[in-house]
Amino acid sequence: MALRTVTRKLGNKFFPLLSSTSHLHSHATSFGFKEVKEEEKAAMVGNVFSNVASNYDLMNDLMSAGLHRLWKDRLVSKLNPFPGMKHLDVAGGTGDVAFRILERINRVKQRGIQRDFEDILEAETKIYVCDINPNMLNVGKQRALQKDGSLVWVEGNAESLGFQNDSMDGYTIAFGIRNVTHIEKVLSEAHRVLKRGGRFLCLELSHVGIPVFKELYDLYSFSVIPSMGEMVAGDRESYQYLVESIRRFPTQEKFASMIADAGFQKVEYENLVGGVVAVHSGVKI
Question: In which order are the strands placed within the sheet that holds 265-272?
Fold first, then answer.
């Protein structure tokens, strides 16, 4: 694992590519390796996730050999959730991250908080699970039947959230931001809804820097994953898109600069498994 801290430089001197509006526009209108109209992308991505919703968790286990569970654990450990917090988990329809946050909060409460105070904190704790896709949300709701009432399920768009300014203590998005039309709008919205001192955390499939490992990873991604999607979920095209969308996502340094451009401070990222995934973080000051 490698932890990188990104220091902002005036004028984007060290990140000239991110100064280009055309670069952001080009990325924002990609659908995998295809170029599509902006107004078409949301519907196309929506179709992908409607198709994969019922097999989403199973395919995550198969594609990552179960490692996605450890990656999500790492994301939540960096968040360091606490009783009484208001948290927003975006693109989290199946509830994987939200359940982990709730379990972490419950462990904190079990360490000896006085009962009366615990009841107050439990009433105040809210974890909002926001997803644009109702099929993904339905999967999470079904899994949450025995879960805590602190979970609130919201259908919404990451680019235009229906939450008040300065209302959240934390914001997470796992494996979702590469699928949006405008990454910069998502980051701006994340900054808007967070309170001062609130933390932004993003877990996303990223770019491998070790040449030999990259070749093996590319071979696995393009040869195995779409075939696995066809065999298990009966859907090769959706998983072909998911693989291609990773390659179109900005590199770790470029994405970190975008987070800083959105107004976040103390921006850093941590590579996991050689950069197959990365945890990006920032704080609203």
Answer: 2-5, 265-272, 277-283, 194-205, 168-174, 86-90, 126-131, 151-155
CB-based contacts of 41, cutoff 8 Å, min separation 6: 28, 29, 31, 181
Lowest mean pLDDT among 13-27, 47-61, 101-115: 13-27
Beta pairing partners, 126? 86
Quote the radius of gyration of the chain (alpha carbons, Å): 19
Does pTM top 0.90 for this prediction? no
pLDDT at 234 over 90: no
Per-residue H/E/C for the chain: CEEEECCCCHHHCCCHHHHCHHHHHHHHCEECCEECCHHHHHHHHHHHHHHHHHHHHHHHHHHHCCHHHHHHHHHHHHHCCCCCCEEEEECCCCCHHHHHHHHHHHHHHCCCCCHHHHHHHHHHCEEEEEECCHHHHHHHHHHCCCCCCCEEEEECECCECCCCCCCEEEEEEECCHHHCCCHHHHHHHHHHHEEEEEEEEEEEECCCCCHHHHHHHHHHHHHHHHHHHHHHHCCHHHHHHHHHHHHHCCCHHHHHHHHHHCCCEEEEEEEEHHHCEEEEEEECC
Range in 66-70, 119-123, 199-203, 235-239 the model is least confident about? 119-123
In the chain, how long is the greatest CA-to-CA distance?
57
Count CB atoms within 10 A of the CB of residue 272.
18
